[in-house]
Each structure stands twice: as C-alpha cells, then as structure tokens.
Write a structure and sequence with these properties.
single chain; 69 residues; alpha+beta; YefM-like fold; 3 helices
Length: 69
C-alpha cells in the first residue's frame, strides 16, 4: 500500500537524495516519484526489492504445486 508520505516529486528527491535514501532504507517501503504531478517512477531500497522478488517466487512455486495436484 502506498502512503501519502511515500509520494515525492522527482525534483524534491533530487534535491534531498541522501535524506530520501535514508528514509527508504529505514522504512523498507517504496517511494513513488512524480513528474508534473503524475506518478512516473518507483524507487525502492535493494534489499526490500529482493524480499519482494523472493515472495513472488514463493507464491509462484505454491501455485505450480497446486496445479500439479
């Protein structure tokens, strides 16, 4: 779930990159970056992204096993 505080303009992210990167690492959540008020990019700390990929792979494995039954 995206929280309001996780939505940032690309300009603000660029101006305050170090602070935003610390926040991304601390929270483990992704940030939505906007350009001209529209969501354009998602930025996420690498370890949090890897956890997301691992969870997706586990879900796929469970589905494959259910289909094989």
């Amino acid at each position: 779930m995206i929280k309001v505080e996780d939505i940032l303009s690309l300009t603000d992210f660029a101006r305050n990159t170090k602070a935003h990167l610390r926040q991304l690492k601390q929270s483990g959540r992704a940030a939505v970056l906007t350009i001209n008020g529209k969501a354009q990019l998602i930025v996420q700390e690498a370890a949090a992204y890897q956890r997301l990929l691992n969870a997706l792979e586990r879900t796929k494995a469970v589905r494959r096993k259910k289909r094989q039954r």
